[in-house]
Predict the 3D structure of the following.
Amino acid sequence: KAGVTQTPRYLIKTRGQQVTLSCSPISGHRSVSWYQQTPGQGLQFLFEYFSETQRNKGNFPGRFSGRQFSNSRSEMNVSTLELGDSALYLCASSHRDGGELFFGEGSRLTVL
Amino acid sequence: QKEVEQNSGPLSVPEGAIASLNCTYSDRGSQSFFWYRQYSGKSPELIMFIYSNGDKEDGRFTAQLNKASQYVSLLIRDSQPSDSATYLCAVNRDNAGNMLTFGGGTRLMVKP
């Protein structure tokens, strides 16, 4: 069974631009979560989608948004990029509630 | 006070020894507890989860939970150099889907 796939793996943007990251979950997994990982703040929860609905949201500004499609694939978008948005963005899928997550390799975003 | 606290380490143990990793949490509503392992440059992978007070063993790994003390630990017996990684403690509230709160992680170094 294929794992969680995230694209792109690396990207460089400049301040003020926007970015869209994509995540394909493990087949059959309906929950997709997004996390931001930075050296200073560690792993922080962004949001979770289940059956195309945002089920939980972390404490991030409205510039961070996401969506989930009917095939469970998910995208997250960050608008008006700031230098502090430079991070590894991890997508995780799960077949059940409770926190047993399978992470993708991540999308490393650098904002210049 | 962070919601989930871990000693950042590094924790250095000789090969064959027992590595003991600790985690405390502040939210008494936490119901599920997880240990993820993250190798340098890789994404986190789930190694253990525990829901009830007491010990749970899986191979060389033992997770221990004490809800009264709000304390979770991970013991790694017969530590191997391949166990060298950052270990992330995470907690999940009941009815919170897959929204996890992570600690900052403890870096473990197992020396041959």
